[in-house]
Amino acid sequence: MKVININSSYNSEFVKEVEEESGQKLNLCYQCGKCTAGCPYTDEYDICVSQIMRLTQAGQKETVLKANSLWLCATCESCTARCPNQIDVARIMDVLRHMARREGYGGTGRVKTFWDSFLSSVKNNGRVFEVGLLVNYISHTGRFWTDIDLGPTMLPKGKIHFKPTEMQGKKEVEKIFMRFKEESAK
Amino acid sequence: MNTSLNYAYYPGCSSTGTSIEYDMSSRAVCAALDIKLNDVPDWSCCGSTPAHTVDHSLSSALSARNLNQVASIGMDSCITPCPSCLANLKTATHRMEDEAFRNKVNKLLDKPADTRVSTKSVLQILVEDYGIENIRKKVVRPLKGLVVGAYYGCILNRPAELMQFDDSEHPMAMDNIMEALGATVVPFPLKVECCGASFGIPRKDVVMRLSGKLLDTAHAIGAKALVTACPLCQMNLDMRQNQINHANGSHHNIPIFYFTQLLGLALGLTEKEMGMNKLCVSPRTLLDAMANEETIKEKAA
Questions:
Q1: How many domains does the structure of chain B reveal?
Q2: CATH number at residue B218
Q3: Which residues in chain B are closer than 8 Å to A35, comparing Cβ atoms?
Q4: In a domain, B210, yes or no
Q5: Which residues span the domain enclosing B176?
Q6: Of A70, A115, B95, B243, which is most buried by a Cβ count within 10 Å?
């Protein structure tokens, strides 16, 4: 087990920031482990969600924000639904991801790349353009074989479109992203 | 029966592509039940999971643009078939009750967010506003002999304080509808376990494991089909069923329906109208085994 000297590495600003942004009280967590017990992704995590909670309580900013787990949480809400102290754990995971992004972590992970490709599709088209999203993801990861095996099944179904659907307000949507970027830079 | 059910309808992005049959069947079922749907004009993406993993004000602004579109046609009650859209639209309305947060969202929008719009799922209004007993009366082609499990997925009912519908651990809405349609419903123990969500592309291995477990369980309890209410769950279990079989050495051949598709069939709508040919795992054998055309004629007579 890893021992952490909390006196020397406790980052109180980090704790305060997580609490403010998530609206959750971190000291309500008493480490029952129920979130981890129900987490479908825990096999993939480097740090399980209950330990993320403990490390966050203990102000271990760098360890928490570097965790791969943040990019493997699918927000299935099992943890939030089952916490006996009504902590919205999934919201804390979300807030930690926001902070990790701001601090420049999670850079080239496939999940983050996929999410970024998704949002760039929304920004450009107003709606998600599924084929465009896949092409964008592949161009960033080089994983050209992604789901290529589904082609013969999916093409005859008439579900795959090679052009985005047109919507009038796509500039409005693009402006939301641009304003968000400006606000974040402030 | 309340015959004046009238809602704004937000289809969501996947309805134009991978979940087109969910949209087709939802619209046709509502029409058959005299539930009026008004398309949200020029709707845009709600931001889904990726937006809220970047920032909550961005996510809520993307949703709020749509809530404003609902208000623009003079409506305050919106429904959507998709649980991810549902969660985002509801979360936006809920969080914008906080003034500081609302101001932050408004800074991203062309015009201030309308916070009066409430959003429900198609499933919720069918159960709560139309009523399962009223659905039962409309059945002309009972789903006789169909042994089905109901799979709800992770976010349709969670978190309970936000979703305010059914039970967050043991939902029954679709089980009850299927029972009313004459199907044999087997209790599905993993009804709220996650299917792997949007990791199908970036981490297919995770979806193979999680959705594989769902299919293994469906097989083990004798379900011949599953019904879902979520485009992502349906896609992982149906479109990826072959991939799952390859990855796990299994041999599943379990049709994965949207609950609206089976509801429509039982109401006498055609397979074509329900987009049955859009499913990847063919339901042909199952549908042929179910009550045939005579049943309709008997009822009609």
A1: 2
A2: 3.40.50.11810
A3: none
A4: yes
A5: 139-300
A6: A70
**Helix B83-95 × helix B56-72 angle, to 10°:** 100
pLDDT tens readout for residues B104-161: 999 999 999 999 999 999 999 999 999 999 999 999 999 999 999 999 999 999 999 9
**Which CATH number belongs to the domain containing residue B31 in this structure?**
1.20.1050.140
Say whether both B161 and B17 belong to one domain: no
Q: Which of A91, A136, A157 to mutate to test the interface with B (most CBs of B within 10 A)?
A: A157
Query: Torsion over CA of B243, B245, B249 and B251, rounded to 10 degrees?
Result: -160
Tell me whether residue B274 is in a domain. Answer: yes
CA distance A143 to chain B (A): 9
Which residue reads 């709707």 in tokens?
Answer: B43
CB contact under 8 A, A159 and B109: no
The pLDDT score that the predictor gives to residue A91 is 97
Quote the pLDDT of residue A107: 63
* Partner-chain residue, chosen from B50, B55, B65, that has the shortest CB–CB distance to A172: B65
Name A66's Cβ contacts closer than 8 Å, sequence gap at least 6: A100, A105
B156 and B252 assigned to the same domain: yes
DSSP string, A57-72: HTT-HHHHHH-GGGGT
The β-bridge partners of B121 are: B80
Instruction: Tell which B residues from 250 to 279 touch A, by Cβ distance under 8 Å.
Output: 277-278
pTM: 0.94
Pairing outcome for strands B256-258 and B184-185: unpaired
The answer to whether the CB of B271 falls within 8 A of the CB of B277 is yes
Co-location of B183 and B69 in the same domain: no
Task: Tell me if A180 and B57 make a contact (CB, 8 A cut-off).
Answer: yes
Q: Is B222 on the interface with A (CB under 8 A)?
A: no
Q: Which residues of B130-159 are buried (b: 16+ CB within 10 A; e: fewer)?
A: beeeebbebbbbbbeebebbbbbbbbbbbb
Task: Report if residue B134 sits inside a domain.
Answer: no
Note the helical H segments in chain B: 20-32, 48-54, 56-72, 83-95, 99-106, 122-125, 132-138, 160-163, 173-180, 204-220, 231-238, 241-248, 259-266, 284-289, 293-300
Q: In DSSP terms, which residues pair with B119 in a beta bridge?
A: B78
Indicate the residue type of B104. K
C-beta atoms of B199 and A154 within 8 A: no
Indicate whether B179 belongs to any domain: yes
Task: Report pLDDT digits (tens) over B19-66.
Answer: 999 999 999 999 999 999 999 999 999 999 999 999 999 999 999 999
ipTM: 0.94
Of B44, B194, B209, the CB nearest to A76: B194
Residues B13 and B81 in one domain: yes
Give the CA distances from residue A77 to residues A8, A49, A82, B194, B253, in Å, rounded to whole numbers and listed in that order: 34, 12, 9, 9, 29
